Amino acid sequence: MGRKIAAFAILGPVMLIGLYRCTYLPLRCSRDISRSEAELVKAAERDDGYSKVMAARGALERLHHCYIRPVDVDPPLLTALSYRFLQRHDRAIEWYERALAIDRRPEIYLGLGLEQLKAGRREEGIENLTMACAFAPPMLDSIDDGVARQEVQRRIAARYRPDWLN
Fold this sequence. Notes:
77% of the residues lie in helices and 0% in strands. It has helices at 2-46, 49-63, 74-85, 89-102, 106-118, 122-135, 146-159. The chain is elongated and about 80 Å long.
C-alpha cells in the first residue's frame, strides 16, 4: 500500500505536467495563433497605423508563450508580422529568419526581403525577394520599390529564363 501511494505521489505531478505541456498549452496556443492571425489580417485590411499597432501589440502579448512546438511556423511568422507593423525592422528580420529555419515559404522570403529593404540591407533584401518571386511570381506586385522590383525581375530572368514571370 505504501508503494502505491509513493508511486502516485511521484507520478501524479509528472502526469499533470505532461497533460499541461501536451494538451493545454497546444490548445491555448492554437486559439491564440488563430486570434492573432485574424486581428493582424483585419488591421492590415484597414490600413491605418493605430489598428496595426494595437493588433501587433496584442499578438506579441498572446504569442510569447507559443514557442513550444519547434516545427510550427505560425508563431514566429506572426511575431515577425507584428514587429513589421510596429516598424521594428531588425526584430522583424530576426523573426522572419527564425520562420525560415522552420519552413521555406515564399511569403516568408517576401516579408524578410521587404523588411531588409526598409532596414537598408538592400542586397540581402533583393536576394530574398528574388527567391520569393521565383517561387510565386504574383508576389512581384507586392514590391513597392520600383528599382528593387526591376532588379528582382532581372535576376529571375538571368537565373531561370526571361519568360519565367509570365
